[in-house]
Write a structure and sequence with these properties.
Structural class: mainly alpha
Distance between the termini: 53 Å
Shape: globular
Number of strands: 2
Largest sheet: 2 strands, antiparallel
Length: 199
């Protein structure tokens, strides 16, 4: 809260520090790069929050229509765990299935089918519409980020692993592209394989 209240003050002091230490030319580059990193990180988090809220509300509406018990509690769990890319909906489904199994196996089966349908809707339509290419990561890197993030910091790491990896990937690509441009290296891409060769 204090950081949010002092946000302009912190940003101004950070900019002063960057310019004093690195000079005007490098300072401009660092501040522009930091702005891009902030955009990647922020766009992902805000987009994922909107996406997860919609999924949680949809889950609650469908569960209410189907007259499944504990609709609100389970939908909140589904919405929160949906913040974790790929695995979130399934992680959220486990407590719901267990809770509904206690009531009736029929409810648990219906809920399991509902989660599968919601996950497909989110993965194929809603997620891409809201998030677009906010991270710029390929699916293999997203799974890697979730796995390493989960190993390093549990559930929080699974959520933050994707935007952190996206920022690292952006910085590495910017660094490599800068060196390639300075060394005047040119590449040609094979249209059939999609693999680059030095021209």
């Amino acid at each position: 809260i204090y950081m949010l209240i002092d946000k302009p003050h912190l940003i101004n002091n950070s900019k002063k520090f960057v310019y004093v230490v690195f000079g005007i030319h490098r300072g401009d580059k660092i501040i522009a790069t930091a702005g891009e990193c902030n955009k990647i990180f922020g766009d992902f988090i805000i987009g994922k929050m909107i996406d997860s809220t919609i999924i949680g509300i949809l889950c609650w509406i469908i569960m209410t229509v189907l007259e499944l018990p504990y609709a609100l509690v389970i939908s909140v769990i589904v919405g929160i765990t949906n913040m974790i890319p790929y695995f979130g909906p399934f992680i959220g489904a486990v407590p719901g299935v267990v809770l509904l199994l206690i009531v009736d196996i029929k409810f648990a089966l219906i809920f399991g089918i509902l989660i599968l349908a919601l996950q497909q809707f989110d993965g194929l339509y809603l997620g891409p519409k809201i998030l677009g290419e906010s991270t710029g990561l390929r699916p293999i890197w997203i799974i890697f980020a979730i796995t390493v993030g989960g190993w390093a910091a549990g559930v929080v790491g699974m959520f933050l692993g994707v935007p952190v990896t996206a920022v690292i990937a952006y910085l590495l690509e910017k660094y490599m592209n800068g060196h390639i441009a300075r060394k005047a290296i040119e590449f040609e891409t094979d249209e059939e394989t999609g693999i680059m060769e030095r021209a």
